[in-house]
Amino acid sequence: MLAKLLADRPETVPAAARGLRTGQSDCVLARAQQDAVWDQTQAHNRLRSHLREYYPAIPEAFAGKRERLLAREARAVLAIAATLAAAVRPTHNRLKSAIKCSGRRRRIEAEAGRLLAVFHQAQLHQPPLVEEAMRRQTLALLPQLDAARRACEDLARDTEELFLQHPDAEIIASFPGLAGLTGARILAEIGDNRTRFESGRDLKAYAGSAPVTRESGKSRRVSHRRIKNSHLAATGRNWAFSALTASPGAHAHCNRRRDIGDHLSRRPSPLVQPHARPAPPLLGNPPEVRRNSRLVRTRPAPVHKGRLTQ
Fold it and tell me: Which end of the chain has fewer CB atoms within 10 angstroms, the N or the C?
């Protein structure tokens, strides 16, 4: 428990030990923005689950959009039509006005016609009194989602502005897959002290991308690391998948690991040792791997009580 607290909370560790000489303000804003993103996701999921109970037409109407209910037109339409009965009342012009007020500038006529077609389809609904009570709950959840959305946007803008003032901003942003916001998160969690981590293995363990191996007798179990920096782990995941499209080398490394049978290559991690050599292909059967220029034959994983352990 103490290890988890030390890894996940910056205020429990002195600034000198964490290496944040000039980046403490970056750490505060970056963590606040990431927490705001998680709060926004929670508010979105709460509203979506509530709408599915009595008003499934709205989630279905915006299911194809990238932002779904976070889209501005979705929240604007939901504000004027919070029930299925109210959704069939607005005219085409009123829907167009709501979509235009949300900030959309193109294909307003087609979007209003599409929404009207969805709302006029046969839908299951709750009894009138229950539907009215759920409508009031929706109108209470909608401002929470709006506030979470505004907080994310404001904190993201302030975080990027402050990150660009840091001396290491240009270095961090030069990595493939990192931009202003993700770079600020990486700087906030890792710090600007070059001597904080002795090797890439230490950084991987801190980020949670290094597995934990437990051996007892003939059994050997490899599992993911639970005690980690949650903010850095979440940012590392976004960085890894962004690097696949931004860096040909990262994409080739992922394909190489997948070709040799590494199923974890579907979840790549950029937090690796800078000069690590690529893993050699597996040879023969039973499996053989090369370690420190020596060929080592590995024993198969034993089966205990009907369960395969690795």
Answer: N
Contacts of 86 (CB under 8 A, 6+ apart): 80, 135
N-to-C CA span, the chain = 26
Closest CA to 184 of 239, 113, 134, 243: 239
**Rounded to 5°, angle at Cα 211 from 184 and 8:** 40
Residues 138, 88: Cα–Cα separation, whole Å: 18
Q: Are 7 and 228 in contact (CB under 8 A)?
A: yes
Instruction: Give the β-pairing of 307-308 and 303-304.
Output: antiparallel
Give me the amino acid identity at 213: T
Condensed to tens digits (0 to 9), the pLDDT of residues 93-135 reads 888 888 888 888 888 888 888 888 888 888 888 898 998 999 9
d(C-alpha 251, C-alpha 242), whole Å: 10
Q: How far apart are CA 235 and CA 164, in angstroms?
A: 18
- Residue-wise pLDDT tens digits, 218-275: 899 988 888 889 999 999 888 888 888 888 888 888 888 888 887 655 555 555 444 3
Residue 42 CA to residue 172 CA, distance in Å, equals: 30
Alpha carbons 251 and 53: distance in angstroms, whole number: 42
**CA-CA distance, 40 to 27, in Å (whole number)?**
20
Tokens linked to 113:
């016609």
Amino acid identity of 284?
A: G
254 CA to centre of own chain: 19
User: What is the reported pTM?
Assistant: 0.70
Bridge partners, residue 223, by sequence: 212
Concatenate the DSSP letters of all residues of 59-74 into one string: HHHTTTSSSGGGSHHH
Q: Omega of the bond prior to 286 within 30 degrees of 0, cis? A: yes
274 φ, ψ to 5°? -60, -35
